[in-house]
Amino acid sequence: MDQLVNLRDVGGIPTTDGGAIEPGRLLRSDNLQDLTPADVEALLDLGVTDVVDLRSDYEVEAEGPGPLSRTDVVHHQHSFFREWREGVGVDKQAEGGEAEELADERPDAVPDEALPWVDLEPSVEAENKTTGVYLSYLADRPDSVVGGLRAVADADGAALVHCAAGKDRTGTLVALALTLAGAEREAVVADYAASSERAQQILDRLLASDTYNANLRDRPLSSHLTHPETMRAFLEHVDAAYGGVEPMLNRIGWTEDDTARLRAKLRG
Questions:
Q1: CATH superfamily label, 8-267
Q2: Which of 17, 41, 226, 261 is most buried, judging by how many CB atoms fall within 10 Å of its CB?
Q3: 78: helix, coil or strand?
Q4: What is the residue range of the signal peptide feature (predicted)?
Q5: What does the pLDDT look like over 137-155, one tens digit per residue?
């Protein structure tokens, strides 16, 4: 691709029963904002019918519509940040019982600049701070986690999951999807860790965007690496606290039927 540096198909990842994830079902990538016409054609040739965009409302508005928005590809936006919008988060203008009721359901909204890598304390603490950030996605935006996974399961063709860098928010959702489909744990960890191989290219690309430049320019490359132990700790925490990914997701609205559809999608 001309303008994607962290794109990959997770097809071929081995499963615990001796099978593998089917190719052409689930792709993951960095931001789709600057696709060239050749990139768009290539993604359509790969069978992409649905895009699951995990960026915040702020990022989407700041970047504007991308080239794929001018095609028939269906876009599903599921922000992983606890920003306010209708029915989600706390409306600071609301008064009385309504605001209190919403506050019980969601943590306070983040600042208007809802960007990744900002110095916000995660709502879930963990020994590995980045693991805590990933667990916070589940605590802060269970609606988006479930919605994103369902968009993958229900896509007519290939589903492409992305955020800005294609490694943290994307890495979390893809790890959950692969685990539900029965992928081997260490293969899930290895897929997550593979983004480190493209870290410099990812950073260079985001630094060229006004949306991300000020936030990223003084951060070392080492802060953007996807260490295997981070994803391993995330999945181990889910196992210890909830008995596994599926029981954890069941607590936030995921169903057995959802799992069956996702497995059928990714396993064929």
A1: Protein tyrosine phosphatase superfamily (3.90.190.10)
A2: 226
A3: coil
A4: none
A5: 998 889 999 999 999 999 9
